[in-house]
Amino acid sequence: MMPLALLLALTAAQAPFATPEAVWRDFDPRRDPLDVEIKKEWTEGGAHYREFYFTGETIDGQVVRVYAQYGAPEGGKSLPAVLHIHGGGQTVNPSWLAFWTRRGYAAMTFNWGGRWDNRAEFTRWGTFKEGNHLDARTGVVVHPDQRASCWYHWAVLSRRCLTYLEQQPEVDAQRLGIFGVSMGGTLVWPIAAMDKRVKAACAIYGNGWDTHPPDVTAPDPRADDADTRLWRATMQGESYAPLIRCPLLFLSATDDQHGRMDRTDAILSRLGGPGWQAVTPNQRHHVAPDQGRSLPMFMDAALRGGPALPKSPETALDLAGNGVPRLRVTPDRLADVERVDVWYALGQTQPMARHWRLAKPVRAGDIWTAALPVMDTGQRLYAFANVGYRGGPCLTSAQQSAVPSRLGAARATDQASSLVDDFADGLHAWVRPASYTDPDRDTTYLKLGQGPDGRPALVHESTTGGHIQVGTHKIGDPAWRGPVGAALSFEIFSTQANTLTVALTENEFVPGMKVYTAEVALLASAAWQTVTLRPAELKTDKGEVLADWQRVTNLELRSSTWKGGDFTLGPVRWR
């Protein structure tokens, strides 16, 4: 029989950790040699690059060999350096190396996800299956302790990358920054908190609270689960935020399913250092160029002595004298303000399913004020402001939320419309849902154009393979929701015969999510074609028929084989 003292000691050794500091207490990212194996070196565009493997850690006697690439401007000295942490399903991204080296940085990108499809080069995790994203348990893992989790080991490799960066002779080890995308954004929080070498951090999409419901007003079914509570306290981003002392920028999109908007202000308010956010309206898992430009400017400010970012815009939500809700915006650095946009959404408690309306504010002195008309003063209202500054940065305010009737004598002045959109006011309500996730480019797919009769139209530029996808949450807004008994109608310009998929979604990214689709055959024509659909024509892949338009929040038009040049969409309405 095992002695009681030894049994107690072993039990204690296997007990889950109680704090973030305890999880990381005895880890030294500099302790083990890197044992770098260079595969290739080359010079291109004024920068020197290398592809290599190095030792990340040793697990059960097996060495984990990390695949990575690194670049630095030729002849550079005392350079700031930036580490890229990729997202789920992604890997080493050389375009980020070119992005940063052009700006005078050294940069590193590495693979944490392991084997994937026909990937030839990747991090070799050996028999430790948790390291490979395909095999990993990405949820709550606290037994025997949190170090059994894939998230811990992916963060270990990230911190070892910082060791590689600080050892490069052209790098200033006191000026290291990190940024991560999606799952990489989730990893930013523990790395920035526990590794004091990080002097600037940017999380893209990942903003903690992963085991909480997206609707902050909803009860949490896992709130009383002991393992989940422990995981939240030791491994989620919100538990690391108070330990982060360096500047942090959060980039995301209003309707993102991973960086859920209603949780952002809560985690930023916990930061131990300064924080900013830049949010793209009406997008999901895509940061548009207006907000993406904030990333290099943020790194310049923190690591290169560049101009400091303005303070985040201040906002207040109240009622105007006529009872109409309004948002008042007070930006920093008034002389540099180029644009103030106010965005607001009505009724929808799930952030992934909101349509964000654009409200143009009016300036009076130091304050911009926008009216926010509503249809029902008892429905919750959400609002925020984006402020664009001369030179490029765009900063987002905290989100304000209130039920107008609780603010005072509110008035409902908005009205329902059978016209969903005729694009006379632009394309701000429409997106390409499958846009790129990494903000390292400024490609746009949608533009305002004209149809065959000269009327305004949404134009999706032709792509390789004819992949077309446009979408809007506008049909989930109470002003544009489809009436019972109505048909959905839209006009399409198609110079060749094409097949179009119409898809409508309810319960987006929450339990009970359903997608109803219909296939539409288009003829080759030199004029507009009108497509009309009734609910019974749309079905799920299980054959479930759409009953009505009342619960759907997202409309998408898709084609994977579009022929005949640009896709052109005309007025969308209910008939």
In short:
It is built from 10 helices and 29 strands. It is of the alpha+beta class and 575 residues long.
Task: Offer a few descriptive terms.
disordered N terminus, Jelly Rolls, globular, 3 domains, single chain, 575 residues, six-stranded antiparallel beta sheet, 15% helix, Rossmann fold, 29 strands, alpha+beta, nine-stranded mixed beta sheet, Immunoglobulin-like
Largest sheet: 9 strands, mixed
How does CATH name the architecture of the largest domain?
3-Layer(aba) Sandwich
**What is the count of structural domains?**
3
Q: Terminal Cα separation, in Å?
A: 80 Å
What percent strand? 25-35%
Structural class: alpha+beta
Spatially, the strands of the biggest sheet line up as 1-2-3-5-4-6-7-8-9
Radius of gyration: 25 Å
* Total number of beta strands: 29
Mean pLDDT: 95
Tell the overall outline.
Answer: globular
* CATH domain class name of the largest domain: Alpha Beta
Low-confidence stretches: 1-12
Count, helices:
10
What name is given to the CATH topology of the largest domain?
Rossmann fold
CATH superfamily of the largest domain: Alpha/Beta hydrolase fold, catalytic domain
Helix content: 10-25%
